[in-house]
């Protein structure tokens, strides 16, 4: 298939189900894909932050892309994260994920090293020059400790280096600047990574959403997207309110015992298990697993949202 | 050889010379090793931040360890960084670098993911459990955005999980807490990563130093170490003052054009080229190279320090 | 007048015009008040960040409140910031501004000192207990380096400690949590401090907006507010787009020469002078004044927005 | 007396004893002064961070300076902090504290507002131009969220704007740059604000120390200073080790209940009460008081250090 320009709709960043031994659980992964595709999502994003890409070995990453790309076979676009510190390492991942079937790559700013905006620009130019598939920028300051400036992203959009941006910065004012600037670049996709203000992002012109919570409730986000496209802002707000309440499950883990990643990703997986989609809720090391009591909290959020 | 307990002395984090095509320049690397060993350093640390480990592909990392470990053949300890985001990925590097001959691994806190101290502890325990060689903690908040709390490090020292710590945090008060606490753990090495306050760190009881600038002037740091060990604090302060002045070369790159990594690592490599140790000063992408004028600045610092 | 519960509408944070000698220019200040009231704003907020409260002496602060409160005489609510580091100093300001006629006080989290959430709670409780007028929380992490957690604010709303919150955090997801939680507290006002996403904030249920740019274009924000209240989301988005473009004037100052405060507040004042509202565009020390060329840029933004 | 150039020795930042009603307890304050002067300190610094200056009203600040300056009557230099956000407010404090007898003023970088280095320079120039007494820069990034660059401080030293710097940044490498650069400016004082690395700072050439813990154990810091001046580095290290252990009392407060300021300043005051110097250990609002159990911990630290 030709990669859509711009990419639009709901593109969930897939959780990566693991076995109790912490290997990729391919049957569970494919059930998750079916769960999402069946709900009407418009694309699949593997190896993102929600996918625990930072925790997966190169072999595991490859297995994920092969399994998902092989399963959906061109029915809908498959994007893959190539999360690593700098250009040479990212390029190795680009080669691996495109060989495994990814139709676009999602690239963060460099991290670990202290970079200058000119180096971020060079990073994207160089990656795009050598990538056989479109490059989408991934703006996630909580992870890489750099915010991609809107004018930098728009400059690269104008030069045809980037095919889109996934904005997980939480900064809606900067996001608006992207949306406004992107009007000059019709094939460029502006996607929000937010679970909580997807309606607002779509209202001001976003092309789509990449919400981690869509693993748990893909029907909700597809409904929300359709309402926004139809101009049903009242309905969209009500749906978003329901999803915001559901998002409370990401706080199920005790912050005295674990970090935000353990709690949020653990809760997504617990919810997928409770909904019968995956077999095992384990997360990768060194993350801390949810306790039975914390899993009970997740179940209550599901019940309140009408998902159990 | 048996890995020393504790590790002591000057252990430079080796620059990784590259060819103009940005492949590992092994002959230059081995000349750098000879330059350091000839100056009397006490160990070699490859694949650290100064080594551009964040920029090297896995194949390049392996080549570096093989070349250096093969060359020094047990004459002095070879440590290797295994810099990556989380436990499973770090363990892959541990396997690779120990197969290639590394005698200890140097491990940062997890990054990219948001972690809790309990997860950092688990990360080190798990890594040490599966590593065939000693594990040294690498405290580098400027890169990983987490400071390792001294009590966490000392707890792991007490449990035999860690064989030492390289402290690049710049926080001498916390470093002192490590030194004081480590008196209870005789085989545990407390090493400073600072170029600028190595004398102060040694005065208060550090076991050694891991200064990037020792690539450029290993004789200076070896002299400084010997002066400190001999209690010649006046001499040590004068030597440190000279080295601090020399360190000014790391600011040769224009901050309006490049990040701190490009400037500092570019200057180290420019100095090594000017001193005739390596062939090519190029740094890995997306770093910005020094201009001719900026390289001139580096030359002036070398001249002032009596190194040209 | 009775202070409205909840406070609603457009409540501009007034610039504080100064004379060339940097004394409060009361005639210009009153012309600014008339300019705003004439445009239909719903309240006036003096001594906020936009007012350069951090730069005004106690005597100047008093003069501002007396002048404004005396001039509008109960026609519309006058709120005053009481910006200072801790409870005892804030309480001194509360006494001063209420004696001068303020009808509500706007209180940030403590700053300079390192505080705990329980201390922030105590700060608000104690301030409210001793304030003769309603207390509104001012969430401005860029200035005080603490984000007020929504659940903390809502807890204080539930206890009747706070009458509202002005959110200048830029975090729309947290803002939504405030709006949703505030449904249980009907008299509590949730106000956005954003110039750029006021439409989105109002769409999801905000009671009003406190945009600094409303000094320059109060008619625009009043129009935007009315469109949102009428459910004219298309019209609101177009108006907001125009205001976002106008907001570009805050970047008129060269970042190599001055900080963000000098540039943004200098540009607001330059615009007010160009529009004939105030006499002199000077800002308080140590801020850097805009150059002639930079003022020209401001003029171009005004012209593009149809304001010259 | 003429203010010393440079200022040298131990200059404790005085705690401000309060009554149970949180008014300044002048008799306790004067007993604290006598306690310090009797131990041989070389100057007194009132209204610093340790003094809870951020919590004291203007009337309280004035009372403190009048009491202390009146009591020591020119026997030793009295410095006063003029901690506030920007130049005009700082100048008001300069007028007040010098009228009350302060012989030098201690000035932080601006805070709350977002400033540029050129604005920091202007802030110091303007303050010094209007101050009747010498100006000392106060580098305390943990409070003001800006680090004073060494070259900025040294430039102002060279121009005669600053008479010294108190460095509470914890960055010994930058401190060394100050010490080295200050050799060109003989009357300029470089003082460390660290309790924990005072020996290291003095070893590399600091003129003196301003340690909050000297309230509790002034004899210890005076001894340490004399040992360093005499070149007795072994003795100094042992004394510093004892003081580092004693500093553990600042962690007496439970971090789940209170911020760092409540714990550290509460512990200093608890220790002063236990040692019989002041009457009441209360701290200003909104700080949380230490519990009985936490005060017990403080007592144990005192006992271990031989101070009870």
From TrEMBL, chains A, B, C, D:
UniProt xrefs under CDD domains: DHDPS-like (cd00408)
Gene Ontology terms for molecular function: 4-hydroxy-tetrahydrodipicolinate synthase activity
Positions bound to pyruvate: 50, 210
SMART domains for the chain: DHDPS (SM01130)
GO biological process: small molecule metabolic process
Family: Belongs to the DapA family.
Annotated organism of origin: Streptomyces griseofuscus
The protein, known as: Dihydrodipicolinate synthase family protein
Keywords recorded for this protein, A-Z: Lyase, Schiff base
Segments traversing the membrane: none
Pfam families xref list: DHDPS (PF00701)
Active site: 138 (proton donor/acceptor), 166 (schiff-base intermediate with substrate)
